[in-house]
Amino acid sequence: MNVFARWRPLAATKAEAEEIDRRTDSDSRSLTSVSIKRKASAADRPWTSPAAFHTIFDPDDDNDKLYTDVVAPSVPRVLQGENCSFFAYGHSGSGKTHTVIGYDFQESKNLGLCLRAAKQLFDTLNSQKGCQELGIGLSLFELRRKTGFDLLNNRTQCYVREGPDGKVHIRGDTELMEGGKVRVRPIVQQPCWNFESFQQKLVKALEQRATGSSSVHDQSSRTHAFLQLEIVNQSLMDTRHALFDRQSELVPVGKLATDVMMEEDLKSVIRGLDGAWVLNRDYQKDQTRIDTIEAEKARCEARVSAAEEEIEAIIKSRSTPCLGAKMVFVDLAGAEYYEADGFRSQASKQTLQERQEGRQINSDLLALKEVMRAWSQSRKRIPFRSSTLTMVLREHFMSTGKGNSTIIVTLSPAAEHFAATLNSLKYASLVGAVKT
Ligand SMILES: Nc1ncnc2c1ncn2[C@@H]1O[C@H](COP(=O)(O)OP(=O)(O)OP(=O)(O)O)[C@@H](O)[C@H]1O
After folding, report:
1. Residue nearest ligand 1's atom 16 by CA
2. ipTM of the complex
3. Engineering a disulfide at 51: which of 33, 45, 147, 424 sits with its beta carbon 3.0 to 4.6 angstroms away?
């Protein structure tokens, strides 16, 4: 994995008056290591990371510089059909949201990485022959504990489930429609055909992002936010909708088939005098009933498979290689360090629920680190199931080339955040220094 680090500027507050003493060293393999110590005093021993970082950005480097060095080199690969991902990792308040999403949506130098990427994609697609009909399908959801919230669909609650095909699906509740039809909404993907509409939809959706109290500040994003940009055309969008309709048809039929089977199984046994279950000789299993519903289920499954194949065919027969390519940006929830100095005062303001949430975030991040390490080393067993966060990311890791994943660790230079900064650097250097 490519690992970058970014120091944010000191905040103009009393608490951030003192700065961490830090030094950057490049080694012969062009990867960089960093040494930090709490104070400039000679008595304080520095901690030095392994050579694990591509670049360490200074507080003066703006989002534009980061985009040019970190994300822009991946755009030609996306245009060739490859998937890429970018994760922002760091303790609460270190600058993840500023980096990935940004807080200023007007000034181009301050745009978050995802918006800048969308801008470059649109500029390139508009200037290339045969690409004018392409757009970006935007999905945006946040993950809080084990539940997703679709920010492009009024924060509809979604659930992360592994399907019988072994794939992980994120879907809302089953909705009852007019005429008794049901629908199971997947995460919404909004097609955007120009940058302005992409920006508008993103900014509106971000208004729904949840904030809460972290051990550092009160306006912390206590969720992992996933932004996916997929290159789409109208025909791909239409076929996806057809697939969702067919999946919705399958849900009640599949449930009915299970119910019928269970009912018939239950009727065909009775409890004997000794309490044990024995065959009910007075009941003959209604095999015709079972076969009828199983045949209906098989028909629905075949319709789902046909729609899936149609999507595959559209992507395979693409006249432009980038159709279906994805860029994923993840603004991870901030790691929490309760015992670290500097965090105690704010941490004591947190509710029990917020502290439990903080522990859940830490365990998600630990699981992610293990997945990244196992995946980078091409290990046979990758522990995707160890958390909901890694389950959600499974499909993405499986479809992304090794060189196409990037982690950006964001760091506070304030001495009072020393312990948290040290932890973030240790985390990132463990991922970055993996021998493949
Ligand atoms: N590189 C930077 N340049 C200027 N300001 C920054 C930078 N990084 C962060 N900030 C500012 O610091 C504050 C905290 O940043 P941000 O909200 O991005 O942190 P975070 O890591 O996402 O926190 P949390 O995990 O708690 O949501 C914001 O006011 C942000 O504008």
Report:
1. 95
2. 0.97
3. 33
